[in-house]
Amino acid sequence: MNFKDCIDSYPFILMEGALGERLKREFDLDISGTVAMADLIYQQKGRMALKTLWNEYMDIAHRYQLPFLATTPTRRANKERVYMAGYNESIITDNVDFLRTIKETANVNMYIGGLMGCKGDAYTSERALNQEEAIAFHSWQASLFKSVGVDFLYAGIMPVLSEAIGMAVAMSDTDIPYIISFTIQRNGKLIDGHTINDAIYYIDNHVSNKPVCYMTNCVHPDIVYEALSHKFNQTQMVKNRFWGIQANTSRLSYKELDGAKNLRTSSAVDLGKAILRLKSDYHLKIFGGCCGTDSRHMEEIAGISKVV
Q: Within 10 A of 143 (CB to CB), how many other CB atoms are there?
């Protein structure tokens, strides 16, 4: 089954949990470099740590017989940063190839995503690109993922509509299925003030190949619940197109969390309850973890598939 058919067919899909925070906290790895986590595959300790975390999440998917989505840790591996760090385009291929070695051992339907991200700050929208700049900037990475044959593309934590549209155009041109994931606030809007509904509408009408769906990540499900509850997001378009979350365990806002020195988290049970409410009332189907999550949280999230 290909990625698009999987998304259309399954009512519950498990996405990976946190990588970055766990790599720092549990493995004492430095991910503060120019390309963040993308060059960990060139370190023995980094490869071991990534393999350990992906196998944990993959095993959970297997126990609950769920499809599993994993993405290359390449959100910061854009053309500018890759060359600035002294690497070249092979860093994209090498990350996909490494994740494929994990997939070879998978006992679930696993799909590999090429992770991309905004040029600037995903939490403040500083240095965000306009639409034309974004098309030019993101096409390099998107075309590399096409050449290596990923199952899907994933735009993580996109804070402004202009860059999200440009990213979507670059992804659409590859003919690879893709997902756009927004930076969403309690007020039901992206950082630039566009509503979720309007963001979906504008992107769907600016590309030749529409995203498979839309998501959000790096945010607590209670914040997303509040965002979706605003009347301007209570539309058929949002209901039909907004399908997933990679959840934070903290209910704090992006502004409160950004740069926090200590881990802000909640229990796996509490996160599971928040996910269940979001699933029950807004019928999302893709669930993963972000900051603060570990295998306990992902186990609790996967368990929801048995009660809905």
A: 14
Query: pLDDT tens for residues 171-196?
Result: 999 999 999 999 999 999 999 999 99
Positive/negative CA dihedral, 171, 76, 42, 112? negative
Average pLDDT, the chain: 95
Q: How far is residue 131's CA from residue 278's CA, in Å, rounded to a whole number?
A: 31
- Indicate the domain borders of the chain: 9-306
Q: Of 180, 144, 150, which is closest to residue 165 (Cα–Cα)?
A: 180
Taking the C-alpha atoms of residue 224 and residue 2, their distance in angstroms, rounded to an integer, is: 29
Strands 68-71, 242-247: pairing kind: unpaired
Kindly report, residue by residue over 269-281, the tens digit of the pLDDT. Answer: 999 999 999 999 9
6 is annotated as contributing to ligand binding: no
The fold of 9-306 is TIM Barrel (3.20.20)
Q: Can you tell me the distance from the alpha carbon of 137 to that of 131, in angstroms, rounded to the nearest whole number?
A: 10
pLDDT above 90 coverage of the chain, percent: 92
Asked whether residue 218 is marked as a ligand-binding residue, the answer is: yes
Mean of pLDDT values over 64-92: 98
Gap between the Cα atoms of 75 and 52, Å rounded: 20
Residue carrying the six token digits 């503060």: 32
